[in-house]
Amino acid sequence: xxxxxxxxxxxxxxxxxxxxxxxxxxxxxxxxxxxxxxxxxxxxxxxxxxxxxxxxxxxxxxxxxxxxxxxxxxxxxxxxxxxxxxxxxxxxxxxxxxxxxxxxxxxxxxxxxxxxxxxxxxxxxxxxxxxxxxxxxxxxxxxxxxxxxxxxxxxxxxxxxxxxxxxxxxxxxxxxxxxxxxxxxxxxxxxxxxxxxxxxxxxxxxxxxxxxxxxxxxxxxxxxxxxxxxxxxxxxxxxxxxxxxxxxxxxxxxxxxxxxxxxxxxxxxxxxxxxxxxxxxxxxxxxxxxxxxxxxxxxxxxxxxxxxxxxxxxxxxxxxxxxxxxxxxxxxxxxxxxxxxxxxxxxxxxxxxxxxxxxxxxxxxxxxxxxxxxxxxxxxxxxxxxxxxxxxxxxxxxxxxxxxxxxxxxxxxxxxxxxxxxxxxx
Length: 426
Hints:
This protein is of the alpha+beta class. Helix content is about 35%, strand content about 10%. The N and C termini lie far apart (about 145 Å). The model is unreliable at about 1-15, about 185-195, about 320-330, about 350-360 and about 380 (pLDDT under 50).
């Protein structure tokens, strides 16, 4: 719906130019026309109201002066027939169809509020992948019903897709404008008097651009173009003219998504779906809307599925290492002491001035150490202790150290061979 009503003006000439005599007119005593919403190639669209239930409606009207255009009348009648056969929630609903006494034809449809996908993309540029998949999935649901009834839309494009927010569904989709729809058994090329193929070249499949027979895969190609545009913010093909666009759809391979959005390198499933939908040959595309919807669902599930935890490699084979705890940690503040084979007698702390006890290793047996102490002058004994007591303490300490410290022991001499033969008495 283009050409919106201009804003109010005090200029009498402007008011006269925009005045519409149909405002306030009744349609079959059931609907009243309230104001004009816009105009397009198929007539004028008005805001109306259904009197019986006080419900706002959209009224699409083909003026009487255009009723002589056989092609427009045929398309208008065809849209009424097609839409009346559809009941999917993502397809616009038809309430009534008729003709005014002046000869003007009209369609009364549900009023869909919101924003066209075309206007939304112009405003935001591109959509997150999850949103694009949600919108494309609803369109495929609507097309699955239409294709099941033998109806080919033939004009899938963002301008015919309305985003109508609802409770819990911010991207609820309505598919509009079935003016070019045809039954698949009669979907040969639809040309005008000048020979121009009907449709929108930027979204047109190769077979539709050549005027060949269209089928369900024709709509899937157009939807592939829409999906490409939603994700990248650009159409796959562009050109200075409609003919240049059609030639690219005929022969030029579609670009990859990652060529336009390098951050989509981790989306091979989405890349495959778009490439298959944009295949030049129909046989290489998805066979049905349901098949393409299943592929989209698989991509959406993989994108939202929780990632598995990282795999931690097992430790290499070898001795088991046990983490030290407070109970198993050794007391490093004291040196480790091996337990003696036999309990050692209690030893009094030797004098700090004893030269024998300060040596790191004994090289003499205890008997020689005791003899050396006996030979020492009497004046070397500590004051207040008798020489006999000192000698006793030194001897006991030497024996104790010799027993505890293996390094203080002299190497054992080999035992003499024992002759077990009896000896003769002298």
